[in-house]
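Service request form, structural biology core

Requester: graduate student, group of Dr. S.
Request type: structure prediction, single chain
Budget code: on file
Notes: please return the result as structure tokens.

Sequence provided:
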Amino acid sequence: MRQQFEALGKTPANHVPLSPLSFLRRAESLHGPRTAVIYGDIRRSWTETARRIRAVAGGLVGLGVQRGDTVSVLCPNIPELFELHFALPMTGGVINTLNTRLEPETIAYILDHADTKLVIVDRELSPLLSRAFELLGRTLPVVEIVDPCTAAKGALNGIDYDDLTRAAPLPVALPDDEWDAIALNYTSGTSGRPKGVVYHHRGAYLMAHGTGTAWQVPPYPVYLSVVPMFHCNGWGHPWLMAMLGATVVFTRIPSADRILDAIRSHGVTHFGAAPIVLQMLADADNDAVPFDPAIRVLTAGAPPPPSVLEKTRAMGLDVMQVYGLTETYGHISQCLWQEEWNDLSPAQQAEMQAQQGVAFPMVEEVAVIDRSSGAHVPRDGVTQGEIAIRGNTVMAGYYKDAEATTKAFKDGWFWSGDGAVLHENGYAQIRDRLKDVIISGGENISSVEVEAVLYRHPAVQAAAVVAMPHEKWGEVPCAFVELRAGSKATPDEIIAFCRTNLAGFKAPKAVIFDILPKTSTGKIQKFQLRERAKSGIH
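Core staff response, request fulfilled:
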């Protein structure tokens, strides 16, 4: 019997590579007349959008983009970046979305490390790319997006993106191997230099399916593009929206007034956002009539303050917290609402919603494990372990970093570095960050990177950066600095120095001068500094 089963092999009829490109083919065929994109005065159907995507893919192939080539994109959330999430994979190329808030030095590092062959840039961000090229010591071929909704000046004399849309359209073809890379995302870690996280077509496909199921998104939603597509490719939402025949609304700038106006003008039903965005909306919409029906919202990036969840619930936002990392394609666990929570007070409900929850359906397992013993922690809400994940939406690995990949996948798990407890209902909740990464307004900040800049100041003898609670941003960098003998400096001077060498959001928001606590071997005892920052004792 076993031989008979084993004789049944894979054929083109029963085994097709999984890829989100199949969603584009479906959208063009099934949802063609429906509106796919709304941006300013722009309205495009799925037929028009799919044809543009296929033409851009043809234009990119004409520029020499081939299977495995990295193409970096520096662009805010506008239709062109959405299109590139399909057009680049169609060529076999790998999309590398660059964080538009990064400083030129880090962008230059990523362009070099990623082996970028071509850069596609929104013209407003051309000066930033120019400075990155200067630091890189060379230029790369450039395609420029000229957005009619902004009055950007200056150019890099690159090819116009619109010229690509006039190329001969390619047919939608799936990759030969679903393990082929589809995206390369960079994440800040404790090493101070971002790591390149490789996604494959299979994971992107399953991420979209799992998200649609967990979020219970019906066909034809109106989705507002708030989550930056440089964060885990917008948590995989661009691919999901094609599968569902959604209308995707863009605002370019995710300000509270633009978001609220888009929601009311276009009947938005779904969006994702970091807790800081939710707080902005709550602060800007205090006197408005609550949205009815409620708008479905995913939030991630840092545990949202219960007070923010309570406010957004009152304004008609049905918020579900999700948890994940760049290494897991974004969200892999959800705080799924339980019926028994209906009887709790609003404040108690918000406390429950702040948990990281249970695994998404496309994830095999999200566990909390005691690293020292290898045992799963009990469901007592007290015993702390580390969140570990396994499943098909875990990265292929770190680009050009076999050692870090092996370490991350030790014992058959991906280790998150996040310390958590497990509650009686099986919901995980983060208690502390095991890695020295600060999450501020949804942005990851490497403490080591900030410390490296502090050490460059002539008055600094030693420095340590930890997270400090912040009402608006969730947490922000707090620097503890030990000055050199005979040197003087002020907090404002140190902060200004950091801002000239780092992106603004990475600079410390407070500087405390003191002798740093150290072990007998000279290592700084950061746990003491974290407690001081949390308690406000400086």
